[in-house]
Structures are given as C-alpha cells and as structure tokens.
Amino acid sequence: MTLAAGSKLGPYESLAPIGAGGMGEVYRARDTKLKRDVALKVLPEPFAHDRERMARFQREAEVLASLNHPNIAAVYGLEDRALVMELVEGESPKGPMPFEEAWKVASQIADALEYAHDKGVVHRDLKPANVKVTPEGVVKLLDFGLAKAFNDPVAGASAGDDPSNSPTITLGATVPGTILGTAAYMAPEQAKGQRIDSRADIWSWGVVLYELLTGKRLFRGKDAADTLAQVLTRQPDLEGVPAHTRRMLQECLQKEPKSRLRHIGDAKRLLDAGWVGGPPIPQRMALHHWVAWAASGVLAIALVALGFVHFRPAPPSGQPMHLSVALPEDASVRALALSPDGRNLAIAAVVGSQYHLWLRGINSTELRPLPATDLARLPFWSPDGRFIGFFADGKLKTIPATGGPPTVLCDAPSLFSGGTWNRDGVILFGSQSRIYRVVQTGGACAPVTSAETGVVQEFPEFLPDGRRFFYVQAGAASALGVYVASLDDPKGRRVLADVSSVAYMPPSAGNKLGYLLFLRENTLMALPFEDAALQPAGDVAAIAGQASFSNTQPQMAASLAVNGVLAYLTNGETSSARKQLTWVDRQGKEIEKVGTASVIDGLSLSPDEKTVAYARSTNGSAFSALWMHDLIRGSDSRVTPAEQSFGAVWSPQANRIIFGGVRQGNAFTDLYLKDIGGSQEELLFRNGNDKTPSDWSRDGRYLVYTEIDPRTHADIWYLQDPLSKERKAIRFQGTPFNESQGQISHDGHLIAYTSDESGQYEVYVRPFPTGDGKWTVSSKGGNEPHWSRDGKELFYLEGLTPRQRMMAVAVTPGARQTFGSPQRLFDYRINGWVPAFNRFLYSPSADGRRFLATEFAADVRPTLDVLFNWQKAIGGEGK
Asked: Any catalytic annotation for residue 630?
C-alpha cells in the first residue's frame, strides 16, 4: 500500500516517503495526537493479507515494543498494516573510519545487542543499512528482530546489482531450511538455514566492524549465491584491520557457532587483550611492578621510605625506578609541571584555603608557595628553568622560579588551555579555541593556527627544535586528535586520534626513537615516535592508570622533563575520584547514603524530591551520561548516552529536564531537552558558544543558563518561554567578569548568582528579571547559591575546594529586602568545578533541614609518583 502525502493511517498523517525494501515501504508521518514525527513501515501487500503471518507479526512486534534502550529505535505500536516506529534522523555509517570513530559506532551497536540478547531477542539482519547515526552521534539500530517477523517468501532471493546490499533474503517459512538476513552479513549457520541464536548477531557485528574499519565488504561475490558461498567457505582476511582488533574479530568470525564468541559483552575484553596500546599483562606498566622494581635494591627501599630526600634525577644503575610520595592531606592539585632538568616541580594547587603556585624541589620535602600567584592555573617552564609561565586573572603571566613579582605578557581570557616556551623566547598558548603566540618580553598576542567554527585547539607542546609543536584538536568527529604543525607552516597534520594533551621525549643516546606521552581513557600511554618523520613508530604501552585531571577534559595529570624524568598524580583529588550521594543534616552529620559510589559530576534534586539527576561516567570514560536515582525505590536509570551530558535542571512538574550536552559534530556545549521516560532528547538551543543551564523558574517561564563567550567571559542569560517556538534568549548579566550559577527565588522575584568581579567569587542577589539593584550576600568568597523553598534562607558554599563551609543567610522578604550575616552550618570537603559550567555539589531539601550532597567515597590522599628510566621497563631502550 502506498501512502500519498497528506493521507492518514489512524492518527498518523503521511508526510513523505523515506525508503523501501524487502520489508516494506517507510514513510515519515506526523502523530497528530502526540504532536511528534514518527516512521511508518507499511507492510508488503501479500504479507498484510495473510492472517497467520499478521498474528505472528503482532506477537513479535509486542516483544520489540518492550525493548527500551537508547541505541535501539523504539517501536511505538501497530496501526492497521503499518508498524509505528521512532523516527531516526541520521545516516548509515560508512568506512573507512579511524579506529576510534569506528569503535564509537560499534560499541554502541554492541550495547544494544547485549541488552536485546539478555531479553532473548536476536536482530537477525544486522548490517550498516540497519544502523543510523544521529547528528548528535547516537547510534540507533533499526528493524530489530523484524526479519523473523516478516519471513516473506515474496521478497525473494534476488541478487540485484549488488548482492551484498540486496534486500533481505527470505526462503521458506519459519522451519529449518529458512534463510533470513542479508547475504554479505549473515552468519554461516544462517546461510545454511539452520536455527540461530545471539551468536549470529555477533558474527554480523564483526562483519560490520570490519567494513567500518576498512571501507570494504568482508564477503562480496558476483551474486547472492556467490556471496553466500564465500560466507560458508572462505576464511576472513583480517590483514586490513588494526592489529589490536584482530583477536576480537577472529573470535567473532569463527564459522562454527560453538567456537565463536558467546557474548557480545566480551568483545571489549578481547579488544583490551589485543590492544596495541596495552601489551599482555606481564609486560604492562602496572603500578605494583614499579614498586617491585623500586624494592629491588636497598637504595630504592630507602628512597621510598624517605620520599624525595636525597633524590637524584638519574639513578646510577639505569634501572627503572618508581617513587611515591604523599602530598599534604589537604592538598587539591589542579596542574603540575616538572622543570626541564627534572629537579623542581611547579604545582597549581589548593592547600588548606590557599590556591596558588607551589614549588617543591625533588630533594626536598618542603612545599613552598610563590607569592602573587593567586588562582594560578596550568604552569609551564622556560627552557632554562629560570621562569614559570601561568594563567591568572584573565592574563598570561611569568614569574621567576626563585620568587618575585610576576610579569603580565598579554590578555588570555578564561578559556585558556596550556602553554609551551621555546629557546627563542616564543610562547604558545591555547585561548579562545585557537593556538596563540607571544614573545617572552610581552606584547600583543597573535593567532598561529586557524580552524573551522566549532573546532577547539589547545594544549600546545613544542618539540626540541622550537619550531614544530603538537596541539590537541577537538570538535567534529573527523577533526579529533593530536596534531603537529610548525611556526613556519601552522597548518596541522594529525598524528594521533586520541584527544589528549601530550608530552614529548626526544631520541637520546640509548633510544633511537622518541616517545609521545598521552592519555587514553585516563591511562597514561607511551607511543614510540620517529622524530624526523613525525609519525608513530611502534606499539603503544600503558604506563599508569588514573593519570587525568578530569573525565571530561584532555589534560594529563603528568609532566615530563627533558632528561626523561616523569612525574604524575594518582588517586587523591582528581575529579575522577568516586563520589557518594549522601543526605546530611544542618550540622553535616550523615543521615543516609543514596545509591552506590560512582564517578559523579554534579547533581540536581527534583522539585518533588523523589528523584535526583546526576552526571556519571563509567569504566574510566572521558564522557559522562545523565543518570537518575529514584529516591523512593532506590533504583538507577540512564537518561542520555555517554556523550558529555551534565548540568541537568528540572521542570517545575519534574517531568522534563534540560541539560548541557556535547554531541558529535559540535565542539560546544548546547542545551538539550528530555522528557522523563521519553526515548529521545531534543536540541533546544545552539549558537556556537558553550552554555549550561542553572535553574528553571517555578512558573516555567524562564530557563536561566550560563553562556561562555570568549570575548566577554561567562554571562548569565535566560530563555523566555523555553518550551515555545517563540522562545527568546536574553542576556541578564553581561560584564567583563564571570557570572554564573543563577538561581531564581521561589517567588520568581530575585536571582542569586556568583561573580568574580571583586577578584574572587562571591554570591550576589539582584531583582529578576529587571536586574535593578544588587546585594552582596557572601563576605569571604562564595559560590553555589540555593534558595530555601519559603524564600527565608539562602545557602551557599564558602571558601575554596576541597575545604569549604556550608553557609546560610537569613532573608527578610518584602519591599525592603534584607540579608542577614552569613552563618556557618558545617564544613564540606569535596572537589568543586569551574562555576561557569553549573555543576552543583549539593541540593537543599524544600524545608532546608537537610542537604543531598556528593562526598568522597573514600578518604584517599593524593600521591605524586616519579619514574626514572621508564622506557626500559616497556622495552624501549635501544630501539
């Protein structure tokens, strides 16, 4: 049956045809009841008139409708002769792709298969045409399990012009001898017409991954019969795929089902086992091996016991050596940099309540503060080790390592990201999504690189020649990775697909190759690198785990000296530490724990206090998904894919959330809307700047968010009527300072927010939405304001992380609004975030008698690890 545009099928109005195949014709249609677009798959004519088949199809469709997974296109129901499905916007993936991109698609397919297989459902027709990748990078599987339901003899086994792309082949009924699937992708037992199970999907998944990696079909004959013959007889040739994927693909592509991988969830394990970046376990740079090496001699044991005392930059034995030293218990390290000779360490850290640069000599136990470096970030050294560069107050500055007043070189707005210094006195730094240069004596800074809109370039690193440099590029999927360029030719060339800051060790007398150090999922990796050709020259090896400062930023918690001494931070106060949601009272005493500890990145309590939304990452991933915890039932559920989703705010009815998200093809954080229980997220607002929401007014009319414009820092904006097509974006607070974390009072007349206009973050209140007038609420630094439900109290956090104080201010409402003196409720030890990104650490209850807070799951202390001769441990010396 053909549906003309405008014709109706029940409540569904046909809009336009989408495609056609052996399983029927597909149309875009409008659900006139729920006001959403759907996909209608109209069944083939002979099929629709077969009562027995329709009954079987009804039963199968009911099973498919029960599947609820973010990577499976939802089945909404049946209407007459049509299947009503989720409309998926996007394209089918096509190879060849870099491994990281192919794996991002394949792993989401595997997640969907694992979920369905656990439910007893097999896809039976997995192929690229049945996979769509949305503009946000979410993979959706289509026609899940429909091959069994259709089983249509009329579709035939036509070879067509391209047998591997032929319509689904169906011969016979659902009895032994049936062939269901598409020739090039079906498993051998499927081609033989034997009964199949989930292992047939595993075969097809392997074939699809091969095609994504190589751009070629694994089996391609002259016609459908020839293609099936190859599936049955020819052994897969895996020479064209990356070496670390071969073992996994071999397990997936065993012709005998009993010898094949039995569970799709084991594919990741096999990938790790064969990974070029992770040699077999006996050879890996596990931390306990470092300890064993260090314990191999009396000198090493003594050094471990004494920490850094009498520590020498190069052990005379030339053997690998590892030392661990605990930093002060109240230290929260934000960045570290080894001096070029490996003898001194510059640390940007909060120690107690002081946040600035600290120096520590390798042969000393003293941590010495550098004056006039308040709120300093991302230190880096001059080549001679005499000066340290850093960022603070929106400026790029340098300071003598021996102390003294800092020198301002140029403006470096808040979006700076790393610096590097060459022997000619040229400094490169990341700012405003580009790489800039300035001379060490100061002056105007000028862009070095250029890139398309939506691409971010950051963390430059000079090579020893002082002309060439590495940098990180993020943004559209095709642009991700580490690039190399030069001052003479700034057009970059990608040398690594991982998104990470890097450190480079050039070739030396004992090593013919250099090493490029970078992060891969929080693990510090070393890649042999050919200096002249600027390309990888061997297999990558793991050095240490948990060596990242953040799960969502590519900054290594590591630094490398010219002589190869390596320092890195583990455990402690990095944002990858596991957190525990906990209810506490007004004295900070624990009432009860909520859920299990995990890597939590901000929380938001629903207005009815039945649910808490929070961002969470798993398995060391750099990406976070939004999750929800049901406070009544104690259950967890994932809300969004793991693609950098955070900063959720609730609608007044607690039936929707709006959150900040970074999706494939865009480098910026945009605003997304999600119905609770719905299957799809909706892009709400995008304009080319980072933005995250902070509050939604109780009447639903205003959505407050923070937008980061590199030219004006962070500003507070709001969307008027955010759910309306006529929504308006209005800037509420736009100054040369950073304002964020806007919170609207319950009556909607006031807004509390944080600003650094005084030189440190404080809490302010202004009328809303007029903005006339202003009150300063905090007195000794403050952030994360929250109103009580009755409007009679305002809570906030005082001090710098990780040691803060929960404060309460009495509010007297009325024409003459007054605010009392801040009162300390309790001390709160937890790591915070840059306020502009609106990741809140706590939410007060409606009555203000308790707080839902994130706390450290374990009392771990940050540890600084230093490695010598680590190349020898990974078999690199002499290469």
From this structure: no
Buried b (16+ CB within 10 A) or exposed e, 216-254: ebbbebebbeebbbbbeeeebebeebbebbeebbbbbbb
pTM above 0.70, yes or no: no
Residue 330 has a pLDDT of 62
Half-sphere exposure of 519 (CA within 13 A, CB side): 27
- Asked whether residue 746 is domain-assigned, the answer is yes
Say whether pLDDT at 623 is over 70. Answer: no
DSSP H helix total and E strand total for the chain:
12, 59
Q: Find the domain containing 595 and state its range.
A: 579-856
Q: Which of 111, 125, 670, 756 is catalytic?
A: 125
Distance CA 632, CA 182 (A): 47
User: Structural domain tally of the chain?
Assistant: 3
- Sign of the CA dihedral 545, 546, 548, 552? positive
What is the domain-level CATH number for residue 174?
1.10.510.10
Question: Using CA atoms, how far apart are residues 237 and 106, in angstroms rounded to an integer?
Answer: 19
- pLDDT, tens only, 583-621: 999 999 999 999 887 778 789 999 999 999 998 876 445
242 alpha carbon, distance to own chain's centre: 24
Say yes or no: 86 and 121 in one domain.
Answer: yes
852 and 876 in a single domain? The answer is: no
Cα 199 versus chain centre, distance: 31
Q: Which of 867, 862, 875, 864 is nearest to 322 (CA)?
A: 867
pLDDT digits (tens, 9 = 90+) for 539-560: 888 887 767 765 555 788 889 9
Quote the CA–CA distance of 375 and 406 in Å, as a whole number.
13
Q: Does 58 share its domain with 89?
A: yes
pLDDT in tens, 260-278: 998 998 887 777 655 433 3
pLDDT tens digits, one per residue of 61-71? 777 787 888 89
Over the stretch 76-118, which tens digit does the pLDDT of each residue have?
888 877 889 999 999 999 999 988 889 999 999 999 999 888 8
Query: And the tokens for 37?
Result: 């677009």
